[in-house]
Amino acid sequence: MPLLASDLANPKHLRAKLRRGADPDTFIEDGIFAADDKCTPLHVCSLEGLHRSLSVLIGARASLDLRSDGGFHALHHAADYSCEDEFPRDALHGKLK
């Protein structure tokens, strides 16, 4: 069961899908970004500021090391997120090794 970008808008729905076996590290290719830039749900949440869904994915042990086809980690996108006050600074705290 693949995750779609639309699944990330609702953390409860996302959590339920992950409980049913969806892979938190699946690459999303449903037109959110350029067709040649596959990325993970963690990338999408970081880019779009979906903080609750980001926390759900980290709780589901989504890999922080995966890069998009463009060569970026989700953390790159989180650092570029334009509203620093809205991004929970502790979302990735203690998760990086």
Strand content: under 5%
Principal-axis shape: globular
Helix content: 25-40%
Poorly predicted tracts of residues: none
Give the radius of gyration.
Answer: 12 Å
Oligomer: single chain
Alpha carbon gap, first and last residue: 29 Å
Question: Which structural category fits the helices and strands?
Answer: mainly alpha
State the helix count: 4
Q: What average pLDDT do the residues reach? A: 77
Record field, number of beta strands: 0
Major sheet details? none
What is the ordering of alpha helices and beta strands? HHHH
What would you say this structure looks like, in words?
The protein is mainly α and 97 residues long. It is 34% helix and 0% strand. It has 4 helices and no strands. The chain has helices at residues 11-19, 41-48, 51-59, 74-80. The chain is globular, with a radius of gyration of 12 Å.
Question: Which descriptors apply to this entry?
Answer:
single chain, 97 residues, mainly alpha, 4 helices
